[in-house]
Amino acid sequence: MPLATLRQVLDEAAKGGYGVGAFNVNNMEQVQGITEAAIEQASPVIMQASRGAIAYAGPNFLRHLIMAAAETAPEIPIVLHLDHGDKPETCLMAIDLGFTSVMMDGSLLADGKTPSDYDYNVAVTREVVAAAHAKGVSVEGELGTLGGIEDGHGSGEVHLTDPDQAVDFVEQTGVDALAVAIGTSHGAYKFTKKPTGDVLAMHLIEEIHGKLPETHMVMHGSSSVPQELVDRINAAGGKLEATYGVPVEEIQQGIRHGVRKVNVDTDGRLAITAALRETILANPKEFDPRAFFKPAREAMKAVVAERLTQFGAAGHAGDYEVLPLEAMAERYAGSPVGA
Ligand code: G3H
Ligand code: 13P
Ligand code: ZN
Predict the structure, then answer these.
(1) How far apart are CA 26 and CA 49, in angstroms?
(2) Measuring CA to CA, how many Å separate 60 from each of 15, 28, 67, 323?
(3) Which of 75, 144, 190, 255 has a CA between 20 and 30 Å from the CA of residue 220?
(4) Which residues sit with Cβ closer than 5 angstroms to ligand 3, an ion?
(5) Is 0.85 topped by the overall pTM?
(6) Spacing, Cα 171 to ligand 2 middle (Å)
(7) Torsion-angle region of residue 67: left (phi > 0), alpha (psi -120 to 50) or beta?
(8) What is the per-residue pLDDT across 4-47, written as a single tens digit (0 to 9) for each?
């Protein structure tokens, strides 16, 4: 099966009323863990690579790892998505590499730090949509900014998404999916107390869904930061501080109101780190790296399998045939932005 596009996978998720996990990948063990979880759960899945991931693995290794996943699991719709593209050139590079979906994060300037103005965001996103759709590739845009800074990415400031501006943004850009800012942030340190209804602006999701019922929303910063993983890391020599993530019930509430792509990176990182620390600590005479990476891969698989089930995507892999990029390009050609 060819790699799937984000557009098709999220259209199907909307029909089925579920969300699809988008998990960040940087290396073989993460790709394998996600693939195994998707096979086990018979679930569509999105694998996303940041610019940092592409730099870490190297573009060819990353692409071939995903191709290996697609060959291993032909029955699973797998999307290869660029996470937080910083400028149109990066998105075009990813499209040339074979990504079937790109995020143009025009909420920040190309430095990945400074919040941009609205006109800039519309202009760069529109430019990427035109180039991507001509090739059948899907585009995610972002309106509003998240808190937190990952690998130098992010302004650290939160600007919640304005629902009326969201309507205009989708109309002007033609994005397939819209990342909304509702008070989440990237990384392990999201909240200092368990977030309740007043911490996350879930009402914005409902409002945006009411105004844009056909638009697929994306929730970034959706790791739940399980206490159990934090405790295990610390018991094995780690020094993570007290922290809270996004409760799964809040994500499920979002899914009931149009959230279709749920971004999870940190939970996979925590699961892998817990397994690595424990195995290294418990086996001081071991020096075969496979002894450490195997449980790490299993830990990644477990967290991904749990999220795919919680988001409702499990069991939906066989609902549809993946459409190739050419078919998606034809679809877009029939309804250009602004027509
Ligand atoms: O949005 C951020 C993701 O967690 C990716 O993080 O840039 O450190 O790879 P990264
Ligand atoms: P987390 O840091 O919460 O996993 O968020 C990941 C993300 O939004 C990637 O774009
Ligand atoms: Zn993100």
Answers:
(1) 7
(2) 34, 13, 10, 24
(3) 75
(4) 220
(5) yes
(6) 26
(7) alpha
(8) 999 999 999 999 999 999 999 999 999 999 999 999 999 999 99
**Does the annotation mark 198 as catalytic?**
no
Q: How confident is the model at residue 288 (pLDDT cuts 50, 70, 90)?
A: very high
Evaluate: CB of 263 within 6 angstroms of ligand 2.
yes
**Mean per-residue pLDDT of the chain:** 95
Q: Are 182 and 161 in contact (CB under 8 A)?
A: yes
Gap between the Cα atoms of 45 and 9, Å rounded: 8
pLDDT in tens, 124-165: 999 999 999 999 999 999 999 886 545 555 666 678 999 999
Q: Quick check: 171 and 209 in contact, CB under 8 A?
A: no
Question: What SS3 state is found at 236?
Answer: coil
Residue 337: its pLDDT value, please? 73
Give me the amino acid identity at 240.
L
Contacts of 17 (CB under 8 A, 6+ apart): 255, 256, 312
In which band, very low, low, confident or very high, does the pLDDT at 95 lie, cut at 50, 70 and 90?
A: very high
Helical H runs in 212-265?
227-235, 248-256
Helix 118-134 and helix 325-333, axial crossing angle in degrees, nearest 10: 120
Pick from 30, 184, 186 the residue to mutate for probing ligand 2's pocket: most ligand atoms within 8 Å of its CB.
186
